[in-house]
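pinging the channel bc i need a second pair of eyes. not urgent but kinda urgent?? the chain im working w is below, pasted from the shared doc
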Amino acid sequence: MSDHRPDWLKKRLSLDNNVIKEVKSLIEESNLHTVCQSANCPNIFECFSKRSATFLLMGDRCSRNCAFCSIDSKKTLPLDENEPVNIGITASKMGLRYVVLTSVTRDDIADGGAQHFSLTVKEIKKRIPGCLIECLIPDFGGNKESLRTIVSQPISVLNHNIETIERNYSKIRPGADYRASLEILKEAKKIKKGLYTKSGFMVGLGETMDEVGLLLKDLHEVDCDMVTIGQYLSPTRNNINVTKYYSNEEYEELRELAEMAGIKNVISGAFVRSSYKASLLLKKAAEGK
């Protein structure tokens, strides 16, 4: 299928360009990466204009090569030991009260970078004690000790994306395992009671509504509190093509499907991404409890 995007799939926003430049400068001056930039997120200018960004830990090169992702999969580089401190300082300068941390996958590191996550959480909390932190983590190869390292920190949300239906994994997520991803969400709740868990997936990758229903049922069975559903947009010509563009009405159907599966805290829409309006989704989940 051609990846020609329909006219209605365009973002039209009134943005503060001065704030966008300020945020970009802060990130560049601190030698940091954001998933907003590295993954060509369609919400980048909207979020930057609101002084919001999702920090990408451990460099901008990934040890895996997922078919949907534009992040560089060349040889990874050594960890920057100054990164946790720099993120803490930058988050403070940006005036953040809710920080989302994510990372590339680093299969070349023994713990997958879990300790690096942990150090970054500590540096943020040191500078912004009341800040809420969401960690959007890779699968760490199923290493439960790596998961425990992060969950033992004072984070509010443990986010791990299921990304797509089970049938797509061998083609779209080589090196990952659907059941292992579900187990991460389940185990996180066992490690820390009261922790909110979250996951997200894309549509437009050849899935059927029945398969999406099964995915949502699986997420509910591991007590996932929050789910984000968004349109897959092929970031480059080298990535897998979009099979379908969902309409606004279909995103409403997906939200209703999630609620029928037992998941009450859902954001569904073409431009929805894992960390999109993250603080608002957590607030909704907390109010529901």
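so The chain has one domain: 17-288. and The chain has eleven helices and seven strands. — does that match what u expected or am i reading it wrong
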